[in-house]
Amino acid sequence: MTDPVLSVERLSVDYRSGTERVHAVTDVSFTIPPGRVVGIVGETGCGKSTLAQAIPRLLPEPPAEIVSGHIVFRGTDLVAVPRRRLPLVRGTGIGMIFQEPLNSLNPALRVYDQVAEAVQIRHWRDIGLLPTFRGGSKPFDYSRRPLPETSAVLSRPITPGGAVAEKAQRRLTDRLDAREEVLRYLRLVRIQDPETVLDRYPHELSGGMRQRIMIAMALSERPSLLIADEPTSALDVTIQAQVLTLMKELIDEVQASILFISHDFGVIAEIADDLGVMYAGRLVEFGPVADVFRTPRHPYTRGLLRAVPERYKSDGPLEVIPGSVPHLARLPAGCSYHPRCPLAQDLCRVDPPPALRTVKGSAERAPHQSACHFAEEVGTTP
Amino acid sequence: MGRSLEDLAIFVGKRLLQLLPVLFGVIVLAFLITHVAAIDPCPRWYPKAGHATIMHCEAQFSRPVPVQFYDYFTQLLSGNWGTSQSGDPVLPHILAGVPATLELVLASLFLMIVIGIPLGVLGAAYAGRWADHLVRIFYLSGWATPTFVGAILVVYYLAPTLGLPTSGVYSAAPPFPERTHMSVVDALLAGNLPYTVDALKHLVLPAAVLAFINMGIATRMTRASMLEVLPLDFVRAARMKGLSNFVVLYKHALRNALITTTTVLGVTAGGLLAGTVVIEEIFQWPGIGAYAYVSLGATGVPNFDGAIAVVVVFALGVVLANLVADILYGILDPRVEWR
Question: From A290's CA, which of A223, A306, B135, B327 has a CA 20 to 30 Å away?
Answer without folding.
Answer: A223
